[in-house]
UniProtKB/TrEMBL annotation:
<feature type="domain" description="Amidohydrolase 3">
    <location>
        <begin position="47"/>
        <end position="510"/>
    </location>
</feature>
<dbReference type="InterPro" id="IPR011059">
    <property type="entry name" value="Metal-dep_hydrolase_composite"/>
</dbReference>
<dbReference type="InterPro" id="IPR032466">
    <property type="entry name" value="Metal_Hydrolase"/>
</dbReference>
<dbReference type="Pfam" id="PF07969">
    <property type="entry name" value="Amidohydro_3"/>
</dbReference>
<protein>
    <submittedName>
        <fullName>D-aminoacylase</fullName>
    </submittedName>
</protein>
<dbReference type="InterPro" id="IPR050378">
    <property type="entry name" value="Metallo-dep_Hydrolases_sf"/>
</dbReference>
<dbReference type="InterPro" id="IPR013108">
    <property type="entry name" value="Amidohydro_3"/>
</dbReference>
Length: 527
């Protein structure tokens, strides 16, 4: 065999009890598992790695990633590779870079500068979903990308392409065009469709429109991944809307960063879980992902009311410059509760600036906003490119939701900015170290199942997500006694500890705790 991992504690991704074994790898696949103490033969190979004291698990699957451009610009990508992530799901929250035409590409680049940068360092030589996936495969001189990547068709981008930025229903012709774009994306390898229903222009779609698009997704065996219409006031109603919509469409549902935030939802996670359990018992196909932290992260401009964002970035800027309109925006934010801020009146003290597009504004990073006047000035000066941390979560909700049997892990990691959310660099070791080992919220076996086998099942990956003979050798070796997130809110780009080895297709991406030059990642297409 090419490699034998000797004497590891195998945590196989099923949730079953771990066991000691030698695991053999040949040509990028697991070719033998010999259990210690059960009469199994001792495996031999060209290389033998002593795994005494280490756990061996499948590679972690990040079900909610914002590495759409990071994988193209950064061959190292240790933010995810060092965590043991071997697969990321891109195209999240209804906004990404395919399918597009020239106009749509220019608009979406401006709209999500805060997530991914403005892309001035990227050659956008693709327009379709298939061309984007091909670009991932031939990145970095044809060597590939740091970790594997799957893609969701972004519904907001599709609406931008076919309808534009108007707050109105789609015409029959426009709806037909959107359905065609979704079908083409699925045929080209996307695993499903995402939405950002607190982001423009995706939020302008009504349930009938979304249901029609979900029917297309379902016909290809994909799933719908909505950032739904509210995580604050009306959160339960928003979850219920998504459950009903996908059941009507016959489409699998995966709820993105399924949190219950803001003061109105403190302690209300059991109500959400009851809603999901009732739907599951009735036959619904539902899963969800969360990150193991309380604050959220988004762009500052996303907090504005939807009417202020109609027409796209240039229209937003014009409204912010107009004093009378800016005062109406302030009133919606601070008094009424903007739909961009989940229907909750703004508490500016919860908003911390995590990144700016203009380096000249770096002094804002790490500061809490002191009111609308400062926020308005920053939005204009930074050309809508600022990112924020929003300190509105509740620990009891986080723990309750992560225990649920359809839960998976997703970092929602935004890699831009001087002070990004630590979830970008720490989600998976934080689950293993803090929530499994220190708090015992889940056992080690349960935690690994949530991060590997369960998301692989949602993605319909027939040869990933388990330590099993014949499966891809996407593997992580970690020390269950020391694994921990290094990233903190003060030092968010610190790499984790206790993860010495990560393999993708049997090749070492992390070896002895250091990033190698291996680029084993590829686009994972729906089959």
């Amino acid at each position: 065999m090419d490699l034998v991992i000797r004497g590891a504690r195998v945590v196989d991704g099923t949730g079953d009890a771990s066991y000691r074994a030698d695991v053999g790898v040949t040509d990028g696949r697991i070719t033998a598992i010999s259990r210690s103490g059960e009469g199994g033969e001792r495996l031999t190979g060209r290389r033998v790695l002593d795994a005494a004291g280490l756990a061996l698990s499948p590679g972690f699957i990040d079900m909610h990633a914002h590495s759409d451009l990071a994988l193209l610009r950064d061959p190292d990508h240790s933010a995810k590779a060092a965590q043991g992530v071997t697969l990321e799901v891109l195209g999240q929250d209804g906004l990404s870079y395919a399918p597009v035409d020239d106009r749509t590409l220019a608009e979406v680049r401006k709209a999500i500068t805060g997530w991914n940068g403005d892309g001035s360092d990227i050659d956008f030589d693709w327009r379709s979903v298939g061309e984007y996936l091909d670009r991932l495969d031939r990145s970095h001189g044809g060597r590939g990308i740091a970790v594997n990547a799957a893609y969701l068709i972004p519904q907001g981008t599709v609406r931008m392409f076919a309808v534009g930025w108007d707050d109105r229903g789609a015409s029959p012709e426009e709806l037909a065009r959107m359905k065609q774009l979704v079908a083409e994306g699925m045929e080209q390898g996307a695993v499903g469709m995402s939405s950002g229903l607190t982001y423009t222009p995706g939020m302008y779609a009504d349930d009938a429109e979304l249901t029609e698009l979900c029917r297309v997704v379902a016909s290809y065996g994909g799933y719908y991944c909505p950032h739904h219409r509210s995580y604050g006031a009306g959160a339960l109603e928003a979850y219920e809307e998504m459950v009903g919509l996908t059941r009507a469409a016959g489409c699998a549902l995966h709820l993105a960063h399924a949190t219950m935030n803001f003061g109105v939802n403190k302690g209300r996670a059991p109500e959400l879980l009851t809603l999901l359990d009732e739907a599951l018992d009735a036959g619904a196909d539902i899963s969800l992902d969360t990150y193991p932290y309380t604050p959220g992260c988004t762009t500052l401009v996303a907090l504005l009311p939807s009417w202020a964002s109609e027409g796209g970035p240039e229209a937003v800027t014009a409204r912010l410059r107009d004093d009378e309109t800016a005062e109406k925006i302030r009133h919606h934010l601070e008094v009424i509760g903007s739909d961009g801020c989940h229907g909750v009146p703004m508490d500016w003290d919860t908003i911390e600036i995590s990144g700016v597009a203009d380096p000249a504004l770096a002094d804002f990073v790490g500061r809490r906003l002191d009111g609308w006047t400062t926020a308005r000035r920053l939005l204009l000066d930074d050309r809508l490119g600022s990112t924020i941390l929003q300190h509105v979560g509740h620990e009891e909700n986080v723990r309750a939701i992560m225990r649920h049997h359809v839960h998976t892990g997703g970092s929602d990691g935004i890699l831009q900015g001087v002070k990004p959310h630590p979830r970008a660099y720490g989600t998976f070791p934080h689950y293993l170290g803090h929530y499994a080992r220190e708090l015992g919220v889940l056992s080690l076996e349960e935690t690994v199942h949530h991060l590997t086998g369960r998301p692989a099942a949602r993605l319909r990956l027939g040869d990933r997500g388990h330590v099993r003979e014949g499966y891809r050798a996407d593997l992580v070796l970690f020390d269950p006694d020391t694994v921990a997130a290094g990233s903190t809110f003060e030092a968010p780009r610190t790499l984790p500890t206790g993860i010495p080895h990560v393999l993708i297709d049997g090749r070492f991406v992390i070896e002895d705790g250091k990033r190698t030059d291996v680029l084993a990642g590829r686009a994972i297409r729906r089959t």
